[in-house]
Specification:
The structure is a homodecamer of 97-residue chains. Chain A has 97 residues and is of the alpha+beta class. Chain A has a single domain (2-84), classed as Alpha-Beta Plaits (2-Layer Sandwich). Chain A is 30% helix and 33% strand. The first copy, chain A, has helices at residues 17-36, 61-69; strands at residues 2-9, 40-46, 51-57, 77-86. Chain A has a four-stranded antiparallel beta sheet. In chain A, strand 2 (40-46) and strand 3 (51-57) form a beta hairpin. The first copy, chain A, is elongated and about 50 Å long. The N and C termini of chain A lie close together (9 Å). In chain A, 35% of the residues are buried. The interface between A and B is medium-sized, with 32 and 32 residues. Strand 2 (40-46) of chain I pairs antiparallel with strand 4 (77-86) of chain J, so a sheet runs across the interface. Chains A, B, C, D, E, F, G, H, I, J: Homodecamer. Chains A, B, C, D, E, F, G, H, I, J: Belongs to the muconolactone Delta-isomerase family.
Chain lengths: 97, 97, 97, 97, 97, 97, 97, 97, 97, 97
């Protein structure tokens, strides 16, 4: 099943550059792994914002919550998800296996 | 360039089933053509709503507005677009040629 | 998978009492069938509003959209769905088979 | 009487992991007790968010406020409740004794 | 149990003065009866708006929804209710028997 | 003149239990005095929230602002007031002397 | 007592120019009378909108609601009022007798 | 030219009473000077809130921004301005020289 | 003085293509004249919406309201204006004479 | 391609005047450079707010995000961008080369 996610990141003012860089490195590794495994089918930057839109393909809600909750920066993210279905006008079921 | 679009459709109560079906048929043909030409890279149904999320890949804003304004149902749609850029954690530039 | 849905109904002023009663009768039959089949696990009235909260248990998003779109009053409803997962503090996975 | 509650948790940045874990352990015990006693009839995780939807069955508003205010994490929660009634299309009065 | 209700009235433009007056007369009778029976404990006009705040004392949610749905003008009203409990600083449980 | 007030309290995370208890004790005394003097005609807890709805009967706006600004917890409260008038369907002018 | 009011006017599409002009003429007369009598202390146009901000000086809420409800265009207006008090930094109590 | 301004003040929790009193004293002097010079034509307290509505008469936008930015408490204020024009129903151009 | 305006157009469903085309032709002429006279300094289409952002340079608020109110499609437009001042980082006062 | 950007700045209370001044100096240099290079075509102050509206002319979204992310004060800014196209009523394509 496909989900569109929007994630907005808000780091606290008190976070040091080193801690922030560490979070970002772990986030990148985690995100890359999800992409390699075909769970995160796409991710884009929202222009001008510390935010992304991404597409997830998972088997159920418990798996999705576990994946989202596992993001290293999860506690600093506002996440909103939207369930997606096949569109009647779509030539194919995009990004869906 | 990539854009995420959300389109919500609101038909007037007075529209007959025949007129509605005609709009939907023309919309489907127009949408299919955009997909075939690689302009609309993806489209999904928002579950439970008469709405879609779609991804457009266009050369500039004038082309995008012309394409959106050309939808047969444009006058009955609320359209909101979000410019997308490559995400630093993305393994590839998804849906972008 | 479980989804919480909120549905708000807005009938047009021009609808006659007979047409409205017919919609409501067909809605009731459709809703009852979904409940009997274990797809709609629960439905409650929002006090003071022509609206409900309901719980759906479906296999995927396409099934859910098809079910929601099949409601006789779908064109008069605003539907918002929220994916639900098992809560870590829950003694059981409520309303989920 | 039934109430739908949505609770969103916001811990302060300064809270240590130990304090947080202690809050969560006490919350789990409190929640489990409410479920065992038939007061909290259901609880689910909102996918992607540190939030839940839950169903309460109480005798009156004073009891409900006392129960909600007794959550160990109450001061870190935004709670919104919605009174629920029996829906005319419901085959039974779900989660209500 | 006490509930605060806010009701906003929106009549359609096409309604004649006679129909409107008839609705208002029946509304007044219905409201007066609820007050006489101690169900509607208070009602005030929101200054400058076709709206009221009112206080209801009912036994349960099904009774309250039945009462609200019985207002002659219910289909033209937006109703929002807020459950009220005894305040710890209150010298008495106001408007509650 | 009658006003409906909604007050939401937000204490800072850094406030100690002792300071908080002191604020609450002074608030209770202040609130009790206003009730005894017939200025605060009613106060209820909003179920599930650190908030109240209350009814004030004052002579003018300067008196009301002075009273509200005098609450010991005023700097931690969001206050919204709504002027109330007699409702044409009211059997009496509730809570108004 | 002083109140700031914002009034937004929304005429239905079906209203003829003649009816609209008649409403506007009666509104102007009514407004002029309120100004002459010192009840409406000021009125300004919100630039770019069919709306005004105005200041009323009345004795109580019932008088204010009666005055606002008496506007010929009241049924086409959204009215929001804000009670005003003397500001501690004000050199005088502006527009207040 | 006239502008309606609404200013909401939010002081940080860490500010001492002395610093706050100093800000307020300087604010009062600054505000009084603007009133004496006919630039701030009026100011009122919003009842129940640490906020004001005020009327400014300035020659242009650069002057207005300079004046607003010069408020001692500017960094703690949310300011929203609304341009005002003469209303066609106004007997005079209120507060405008 | 400069103002940023956003205008959203909403035509009623009942308007014929001929009437719409006539409105649009008159709008174009009116808009072109404002541009030629240096009053409307710029106008752009909001991509995907029947809306524009535009920049006006006028002498005062009464002139601006008169100009905006004179748009042939004014009654079908939602207009929101934002006063602009010279930015301290600007190399010049853009679009300002 | 043209984009309208609105940027709102929120500095933390703990920032010293020296750090703030340094940010502002670097921001001014960065902004000036973008203007000199024809990338930022215009920038204005929003009257009464620590915010700007600005116009960017860039080749694609990745360039724009890189430019916006490069602002020295980016982490303290909320940025919202709106893609702009040529308006059919425009006499020229304003601020576009």
């Amino acid at each position: 099943m496909l989900f569109l996610a929007r994630m907005d990141v808000h780091f606290p003012e008190s976070m040091t550059q080193e801690v922030m860089a560490d979070y970002q490195a772990r986030e990148k590794a985690y995100s890359g792994d999800l992409q390699s495994r075909g769970i995160m089918k796409a991710i884009w930057r929202v222009v001008g914002e510390y935010a992304n839109y991404s597409i997830f393909d998972v088997n159920d809600h418990d798996e999705l919550h576990s994946i989202l909750g596992g993001f290293p920066m999860f506690k600093y993210m506002d996440v909103k998800i939207t369930p997606l279905a096949k569109h009647p006008n779509a030539l194919e079921y995009y990004l869906f296996d």
